[in-house]
Structure formats: C-alpha cells, structure tokens
Amino acid sequence: MSGQTAKIASLCECGSVAVRQVNQFINHGELWWDAEFSCDSCGTYLCEQAGPGTAPDDVREALLAAHGPAKLRLAGPVASLVPAMKVFREVSAVSLSQARELVERLSHDGVVGTLSEMELLTTRLQLRGVPVDIDR
C-alpha cells in the first residue's frame, strides 16, 4: 500500500485552530481516501471519512499542494491504445470521448494527478500491456 498525507488548518467548534489530516492511498487495488479531524485545545477527534473512491477536490488540492503532481506518460510504443482507453473508463468512469482525450494526453504531454492516482493507473495500464512511467 502506498499513499500520501497532507494537513490542513481547520477551525474547531471550540474556536481553536485544529488540524484536518487527509490521506489518499491504494488498498487492495482500489483508490481510497480518508480524513481525520483533531483539536488539541478541546480534545476533539473525528474520523470524517474513510473508504474507496475518488477524493473530493479539497483533499486532492491539499495533496497536490503538499507533494506536487505526478505525471503519467506512455513509455514505449503500443500496437493499440484501446486497452488504455478501457482502463481510463474503468478507473475514472469517464465517457468514451473523455477516455480518448486522456489517452491522447498520455501519449503526448502526460496525465497529471496525485501520486496515488497515477500509481493506480500505472498498475492497471501495465496489466493491460500498456508501458507507462511516472514522473514525480
């Protein structure tokens, strides 16, 4: 399992500044995320969310700000890009035209996201015979 963590300052109900820790990781071949809230002043601790799926924008933005983006690129020639389109449709739940756009990006400038997102795509693409590399 690999993943990333970021901490975000957040206001607690007690009026103090608290910490919201967000995480994104791969667990059993799926992308997961979670968020925990803790306040040292009043002792509040909450697990806000834990489970599989795409992280909300605020979680992704915090991870990208803390660690920078990872870029996934095609690492060699492929006979067909259809397997890559299938992976994007499965992993990202995008339309056929959006999958084509993502494959175009993969073939040229690269697809950008969090490290966990790109690692999941790497695993799935390589299983389908699509050679890719991650630039960090």
List the helices and strands and how they pair.
Layout: E1 3-11, E2 17-27, E3 30-38, E4 45-52, H1 57-67, E5 70-74, H2 82-92, H3 96-107, E6 111-113, H4 115-127, E7 132-135
Antiparallel strand pairs: 1-2, 2-3, 3-4, 5-6, 5-7
Textual characterization of the structure:
The chain folds into two domains: 3-67; 70-135, Ribosomal protein L7/L12, C-terminal domain/Adaptor protein ClpS (Ribosomal Protein L30, Chain: A, 2-Layer Sandwich). The protein contains four helices and seven strands. The protein has helices at residues 57-67, 82-92, 96-107, 115-127; strands at residues 3-11, 17-27, 30-38, 45-52, 70-74, 111-113, 132-135. The strands form two sheets. A four-stranded antiparallel beta sheet has the order 1-2-3-4. The chain has a three-stranded antiparallel beta sheet with strand order 6-5-7. β3 and β4 (45-52) form a beta hairpin. α2 (82-92) crosses α3 and α2 packs across α4.
CATH topology of the largest domain: Ribosomal Protein L30, Chain: A
Rg measurement, Å = 17 Å
Measured between the Cα atoms of the first and last residue, the distance is: 18 Å
- Helix fraction bin: 25-40%
Note the total helix count: 4
- β-strand amount: 35-45%
Report the mean per-residue pLDDT as an integer. Answer: 92
CATH superfamily of the largest domain: Ribosomal protein L7/L12, C-terminal domain/Adaptor protein ClpS
> Which structural class best describes the helix and strand composition?
alpha+beta
Q: What's the CATH class of the largest domain, please?
A: Alpha Beta
Strand order of the largest sheet: 1-2-3-4
